[in-house]
Specification:
- About 40% of the residues lie in helices and about 15% in strands.
- α1 packs parallel to α10, α5 packs across α7 and α7 packs parallel to α8.
- Strands 1-2-3-4-5-6-7-8 form an 8-stranded parallel β-barrel, surrounded by 7 helices.
- It has about 250 residues and is α/β, with parallel strands linked by helices.
- It has one domain: Aldolase class I (TIM Barrel, Alpha-Beta Barrel).
- α1 links the parallel β1 and β2.
- Bound molecules: 2-phosphoglycolic acid.
- The site of 2-phosphoglycolic acid has 13 residues, from β8.
Length: about 250
Amino acid sequence: MARRKYVVGNWKMNGLSDAVTEAQAIFAAADEHPAVDVAICPPFTLIGAMAAALPEAAIGGQDCHAAASGAYTGSVAAAMLVDAGATLVIVGHSERREGCGEGDAEVKAKAEAALAAGLNVILCVGEPRAVRESGGAIDYVLAQVRESLPVEFDPARLAIAYEPIWAIGTGLVPTVDDVAAMHGAIRAALAERIGAGAEVMRLLYGGSVNGENAAELLGAGDVDGALVGGASLTAAKFIPIVAAGAGL
Ligand code: PGA
């Protein structure tokens, strides 16, 4: 089945209030490529301003807490993201799995909380370099997929982003064959779990995607889009990736 391409910018801890102008430039230019769904996940502090300036745009969080409210200093609940104007959230990014010690069970709880609050979810998985070098990448990532997936979900509302940790922010990317093999394996595992709904789910590749390599990566088998960090901060760098998605 034809899945719409999905290109998502993860701004990480970048952007002050003046960056809303850049987001406006990104979404204005992205409108020229209506075949591609585009979203930006800015820092929490910018979601409200960005959603107010761009009421039609898909704006997301980069994380949420699994609980609805409570004594969790520094955390943000899924309903708070919705309240600020977000329509999606990234969960399980490796910078949180590795940097904040989040395991699969916590990622799963966050994904479930986000879906229950009405957010669409981008659930991230990906192997460290040593696992890739040992030949165990597919097994490692499939275990993450199995353990992090919500018990029940609408496949149209949950995308998986495969982001090899060693490719994030490094300029290194897997071969197109390796990306296709991983995405094919993820799709097969999803089919085992949810049947035909696996054909609806979008599988994004992330890790050093840029305007030069986007067409090749987005054209790989079972790749339905990209999760983009560094190259998503400006329209000049991000739009060529969106255009590559539109050209496929
Ligand atoms: P990058 O980050 O594009 O800067 O490699 C991707 C990500 O971490 O989502």
